[in-house]
Amino acid sequence: MTHLLGIDTSTTATKALLIDEEGSVVAVAAAEYPFDSPNPGWTEQDPALFWNGTVQSICAVLAKAKISGKDVAAVGLTGQMHGMTLLDAHGEVIRPCILWNDQRTAQQCEFITTLVGAERVLQLTGNPILTGFTAPKIVWTREHEPENYARIAHILLPKDYVRYKLTGDFFSDVADSSGTSLFDVGKRRWSEEMLTALQISRVWLPEVTESPVASTKINADAAQATGLLAGTPIVAGGGDQAAQAVGAGIVREGTVAVTIGTSGVVFAQSDSYRVEPQGRLHAFCHAVPGKWHLMGVMLSAGGSFRWYRDALTSNESYDSLTQAAAEVTAGSEGLLFLPYLTGERTPHPDPHARGAFIGLSIRHTKPHLTRAVIEGVTFGLRDSLELMRALGVPTQQVRASGGGAKSEMWRQILADIFNAEIVTVNSTEGAAYGAALLAGVGAGIYPSVEAAADRAIRITGAHQPARDTDLYADYYARYRALYPALKAEFAALAKIISPLGD
């Protein structure tokens, strides 16, 4: 039997996942590792952890499946985006990888935006310059670690460092490269304009292909380390969000993914290159060749529900809370919740935004508060959906996943607030599963990414908008008015709490 291997290099672990040709999961293994925070707001990781985790997880998943490397037709790669891994001319790591959630580069973001121009940056890269992205990290290294900067011969994203260790070659893909602020997202190639403006050498960057392309092969050293067969094709893969979308079947325009984990993500395929005029949505190349995607991110989605449970309910079970909240009428009798517990990203990129209950009365009970939290998070996710609709992206069907989507009540609230069909699918393994499907396309097992998703992914449940849709439309209008009304007060409170801006 032919198997396909997906490798996901995340912040906390590397996962290896094997599927068969029908898309059924055969085995999964993971190797965990830590990350470092040498200064407040900094996050770094030794790239050796990526490689050691890859070797361990591949060996473990082959053993679990009781197969050998000769049974693996191809390997697909995915992983955390934006991380800066620097290699010297000998292929040796220069310094720890600066990760996606590192916050040290605010000044460099301002410098790049001023240098190139905010509007031009959006046109070229599809996004504003953000602290998590790769380009400001490179500029930071030049300014603060000139001795390391002088040694640079290669700049790789985390999963592409794993590719280098597996093959000895330097390749990336259009989806992951879109998150560097150095990529012309519309033209699907490195941006000479951005590179020239920042004085970053093009030869430092890897060759870029579409995600399903089998760009290189396992070499002899990696074969000995992992148990894979030398010559096994390595498919380009994609960043974790694009690969996860493939794994959920978001491979055609009109289908949207909403993921309710600690954070919340709304992801939609776009057949054309669309950029939100104010940069409130991410615009990246998709892992589907010739397609793009738009993405909105809420910082505290399921995280808001967890905070509510831990802080206000004595750790009552989620099921118990939602069962009681289901007895409350839609709108929680006029109680609204702002889910900005850790600031916000989409549509309000405001680190000072904070959470709030609005409209509390003596009639409100714990079930009212529970339902208001769920409704408030869903209203916030709808903000991203509305930005997509305003750009002309069709949103007929929404595929829900993550911890929040396990609740039938929450799925119905999603359907009513989004005014869209909400479905669940059989795939639950996330980005590694999508990487394995991409590997199948590169190996010729599936003729296209769309065909791979059609063969492997099935709908397991559906919720239609019901009687509360019109009522929620009225409440959503009130929800949208709250942040503009409170924005100045959030900023004023931040100055009182931290007058020096720390």
What's the gist of this structure?
This protein is an alpha+beta fold. Helices cover 38% and strands 22% of the residues.
CATH class annotation of the largest domain: Alpha Beta
Distance between the termini: 57 Å
Number of strands: 23
CATH architectural type of the largest domain: 2-Layer Sandwich
Give the DSSP E fraction (strand runs of 2 or more residues). 15-25%
| Uncertain regions spanning at least 5 consecutive residues | none
Globally, the shape reads globular
Count of structural domains: 3
Radius of gyration: 23 Å
Q: What is the fourth-level CATH superfamily of the largest domain? A: ATPase, nucleotide binding domain
The profile of the biggest β sheet is: 7 strands, mixed
Lateral arrangement of strands in the main beta sheet: 17-18-16-15-21-22-23
Rounded mean pLDDT score: 96
Structural class: alpha+beta
CATH topology of the largest domain: Nucleotidyltransferase, domain 5
Summarize the amount of helix as a percent range. Answer: 25-40%
- Count of alpha and pi helical runs: 17
Describe the protein's architecture and organization.
By secondary structure, the chain is of the alpha+beta class. The protein folds into three domains: 3-243, Nucleotidyltransferase, domain 5 (2-Layer Sandwich); 249-299 and 393-463, Nucleotidyltransferase, domain 5, CATH 3.30.420; 302-382 and 468-497, Nucleotidyltransferase, domain 5 (2-Layer Sandwich), CATH 3.30.420.40. It has helices at residues 47-65, 106-116, 118-125, 134-144, 146-149, 158-167, 174-177, 192-198, 220-226, 240-247, 302-312, 318-325, 366-390, 408-418, 431-442, 449-456, 469-497; strands at 3-9, 13-20, 25-32, 44-45, 72-79, 85-87, 97-98, 154-156, 171-173, 183-184, 189-190, 207-209, 214-217, 233-239, 254-260, 264-270, 282-285, 292-298, 336-338, 356-358, 395-401, 421-425, 459-463. Strands 17-18-16-15-21-22-23 form a seven-stranded mixed beta sheet, sandwiched between helices. α2 (106-116) packs across α4 (134-144), α12 (318-325) crosses α13 and α14 (408-418) packs across α17. The termini are far apart.
